[in-house]
User: What shape does this take?
Amino acid sequence: MKEKKIFITADGTPSLALDSVKETYHSRHGALQESRYVYIDKGLKYWDSNHPGSKFCSVFEMGFGTGLNALLAAEYATNHKQSLYFESVENDPLASSTHAELGYSSLFPDLENDAARMELLQEYWDTPQNFSSYFNYYKKNQDYFQWDSDRTFNVIFYDAFGAQAQSEMWEEKALTRAVEKLTPGGVWVSYCAKGSVRRTLQALGLIVERLPGPPGKREMLRASKEE
Ligand SMILES: C[S@@+](CC[C@H](N)C(=O)[O-])C[C@H]1O[C@@H](n2cnc3c(N)ncnc32)[C@H](O)[C@@H]1O
Assistant: This one.
């Protein structure tokens, strides 16, 4: 397990810094703000708005990390009474003590099921779990390049570290794995705005948009598969 340090981002929510590769888990401009904007507003909510009346949505996240995106997705499912399946991979899971220190569970007081909320962030891996009647999840302690799923996904949260830290995650081989698992009409989103990623996703047949980024970032990418 690589050593991580907690720091407070500009919106007051904590995040982690991984000194060995000089990377942070979220934007220094606001962890909660960025995650909600990029993955929920521009990803999940966008897919939902394009599929009105849809009773079920499946989400894959590359990089479970702190579990912040999982909690946000659980909150979305609960608030919208949307049945959601959330699958994620992580090859360097956090210790329970780090999850406790981050205290993300307390950012979601409206998610009533305290035990399930805590459990989502604990070291229960590799078994599908039931969070509530709206939210089921499956955290796989696995490397993304080994990951496979018998499912396809309506929304993909692509949340790897930046290209300067792990260039392989932003190259064709890695992006192809995600694109192959996207349903027709499915949406891939990331905080990343790199030109080479945009061009690779276009070459893989997706319709790519450059969207205004969250506070502190000029742009982000969203890529959709034709219906
Ligand atoms: C930028 S952090 C974001 C994490 C998470 N989405 C969050 O909100 O905390 C990237 C995460 O991807 C994980 N990761 C990086 N490369 C991976 C790989 N090849 N397979 C699985 N997980 C990976 C890292 O360990 C880290 O937890």
Summary: The radius of gyration is 16 Å. The chain has a mean pLDDT of 95. Residues 30-224 form a domain with the Rossmann fold fold (CATH 3.40.50.150). The longest strand covers residues 182-190.
